[in-house]
């Protein structure tokens, strides 16, 4: 028995030594992976971790680190599998949940990512990065209010960490989405103080300032944005829009030109440039630009003729000489109704009443609540002798905007001309009350 026991003990000892050597070798490959990751060689790191895993498939850290390397290589599907295995082996590894959530978010699986961030926070309630990522995911899911709560938590956990500028920026973006523009400006300003080299922070603050009609401040912010990122078509457009608001039409034209140069499909820039061309008297160019604003990548163009008729130049001239155009540039919506409206105005100025009617019809069809479009169509119809139709357009404009002084004025003079003097004078009086002083000249002449 003793002679049999010795060989058996020898075999056991040899096996134990082999396992130790294998374990040490796996550790060495793990360290090679760590060093390669630090050097930015994520392919080499991934290969080293794979060797370590082959030698020791129960080591959670190897899967976790390989998942991080794959994440850097944008292999998010592979990273998720590694983080899955990490969690199987180490269910309380908060960072594995955090980075698995990040890879899921990169795959647009935001709801599943949210569950991973929730789990990370359960395991480590002080992890600021988890709140940051969860906030960003909630924002993508349009849950802006709870996203703001997460970003606020990030700031509370890291009040002096300049790296947390992202939390201020993201919180500002959410506030902007909720139309809290003043609050967003405060957050964007803090983000800029922490990181003054990020163009998007200036661009976002400029947009919020634009929304509260701080056009000068907005222009300054877009100046910085395009200085930091000269290829930012959107900031050129927004700066042009702000300049248009202060009637710097030539300055705006330069910005719209640049926006279009950088992005030939920027239909809002065509719309803005067309508006400026119209204001500067370049009606041919205005019509061309506004046509592009309507047609570029627009799959719903309807070429149906909605109206044709005769234009009376004398009536047109009279209406244009009395009613002062007060049109302002509006936000360019997805339906492009503003571009049809502005092109209609430009055609109206050029004496193309038929073309103006077609564009104004289309503008109203796309946006039935567009009071200015009804009023402008009323002017054109009245110039063509279609007074009853013009009355209806003015009435529709007033229903949509009860303080539309010019619409009361035009409806008043049409009613008076059609023999309804009392109603006409009442409308003229209302126009005067609302601030359209020209109405009082007509009242003195025809209502006494």
From TrEMBL:
Q: Is Secreted found in the keyword set?
A: no
Q: Signal peptide span per the entry?
A: 1-22
Against Pfam families, the record matches this protein to:
TPR_11, TPR_16, TPR_8
Q: Which domain of life is it from?
A: Bacteria
The cross-references to PANTHER family, in alphabetical order and at most eight, read: TETRATRICOPEPTIDE REPEAT PROTEIN 6, UDP-N-ACETYLGLUCOSAMINE--PEPTIDE N-ACETYLGLUCOSAMINYLTRANSFERASE SPINDLY-RELATED
Supply the Gene3D superfamilies for this chain: Tetratricopeptide repeat domain
Q: Give the protein name, as stated in the record.
A: Tetratricopeptide TPR_1 repeat-containing protein
* InterPro entries on file: TPR-like_helical_dom_sf, TPR_rpt, Ycf3
Q: Which windows of the sequence hold TPR repeats?
A: 26-59, 60-93, 94-127, 128-161, 165-198, 199-232, 233-266, 337-370, 371-404
User: Per UniProt, which keywords does this protein have?
Assistant: Repeat, Signal, TPR repeat
């Amino acid at each position: 028995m003793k002679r049999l026991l010795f060989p058996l003990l020898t075999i056991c000892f040899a096996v134990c030594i082999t396992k130790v050597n294998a374990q040490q070798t796996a550790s060495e490959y793990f360290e090679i992976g760590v060093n390669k990751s630090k050097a930015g060689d994520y392919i080499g790191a991934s290969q080293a971790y794979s060797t370590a895993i082959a030698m020791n498939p129960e080591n959670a850290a190897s899967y976790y680190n390989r998942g991080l390397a794959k994440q850097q290589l944008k292999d998010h599907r592979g990273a998720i599998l590694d983080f899955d295995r990490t969690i199987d082996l180490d269910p309380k590894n908060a960072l594995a949940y955090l980075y698995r959530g990040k890879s899921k978010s990169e795959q647009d699986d935001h709801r599943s990512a949210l569950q991973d961030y929730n789990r990370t926070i359960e395991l480590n309630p002080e992890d600021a990065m988890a709140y940051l990522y969860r906030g960003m995911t909630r924002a993508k899911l349009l849950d802006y209010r709870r996203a703001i709560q997460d970003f606020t938590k990030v700031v509370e956990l890291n009040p002096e960490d300049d790296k947390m500028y992202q939390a201020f920026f993201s919180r500002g973006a959410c506030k902007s989405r909720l139309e809290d523009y003043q609050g967003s400006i405060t957050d964007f300003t803090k983000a800029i103080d922490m990181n003054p080299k990020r163009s998007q922070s200036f661009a976002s603050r400029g947009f919020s300032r634009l929304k509260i009609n701080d056009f000068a401040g907005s222009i300054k912010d877009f100046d910085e944005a395009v200085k930091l990122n000269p290829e930012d078509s959107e900031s050129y457009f927004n700066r042009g829009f702000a300049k248009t608001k202060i009637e710097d039409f030539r300055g705006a034209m330069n910005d719209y030109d640049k926006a279009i140069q950088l992005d030939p499909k920027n239909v809002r820039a065509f719309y803005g440039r067309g508006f400026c061309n119209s204001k500067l008297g370049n009606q041919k160019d205005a019509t061309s630009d506004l046509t592009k604003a309507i047609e570029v990548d627009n799959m719903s163009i309807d070429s149906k003729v909605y109206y044709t008729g005769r234009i009376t130049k004398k009536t047109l001239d009279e209406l244009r000489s009395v009613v002062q155009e007060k049109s302002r540039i509006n936000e360019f919506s997805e339906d492009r109704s503003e571009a049809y409206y502005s092109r209609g105005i430009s055609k109206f100025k050029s004496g193309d009443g038929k073309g103006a009617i077609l564009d104004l019809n289309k503008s109203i069809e796309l946006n039935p609540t567009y009071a200015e479009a009804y009023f402008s169509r009323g002017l054109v119809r009245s110039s063509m002798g279609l007074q009853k139709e013009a009355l209806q357009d003015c009435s529709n404009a007033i229903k949509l905007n009860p303080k539309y002084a010019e619409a009361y004025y035009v409806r008043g003079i049409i009613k008076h001309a059609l023999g309804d003097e009392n109603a006409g004078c009442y409308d003229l009086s209302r126009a005067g009350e609302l601030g359209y002083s020209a109405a009082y000249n007509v009242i003195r002449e025809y209502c006494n």
